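(Structure overview)
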Amino acid sequence: MIKIGINGANGKMGQEIRQLIPEFSNCQLVYSRSKNIGSLQELCLSSDVILDFSSIEGSMEILGAAITNNRKLLIGTTGFSDEQHRVILEASKKIPILQTANTSFGIALLNILVKKAAATLIGYDVEIIEKHHVSKKDSPSGTALMLKRNIADSSCDIKFESIRGNDVTFEHQVNFSNQAERIGLIHKAETRRVFAQGAIKAAIWLFRCNSAGLYNMEDVLREVM
């Protein structure tokens, strides 16, 4: 039985994961923490794997506690500074850390396809369009910025478009174009459940991971699929 703890348990992702964990026979939710409600130490001591969907400050707190207690950690929070990314990278030399802006396997595949397209379509213009509900805080989304990083090493010119609406689900589209043609790659998710499923499957993968390092959902995808 894999003991899973959640940091940021009352957020939208935290709530979705809490509801879904009972459907996995090999997983057990052992501790939930939200903001300052709950102990970092108890969260670490009771859990095999910690899923963090809290805040930048909350992620930095649980990162330090995970190192102290030698716990495996999935960081799903976004918006970190370059210095905070460096702190996470240094921490991954001590414990297994999976850091991702999106826990969907579909987005993991989209990342792979976008990298291949950018490496092939040299000199093409790139447009990243992301659509979310009106309550989405960050714009562009963390996923859109992750997609941009996969293209950044190419010579492509990258533009963003962020759309917010009441009836919008979760959608990311990457278009490569020149004067003669246009190639589009798109991912749509109709429910947050797909992200919760990916997070729990990533927790199972992390539980089996015995090497310190910084991992992502593409590492999980290659093994699970």
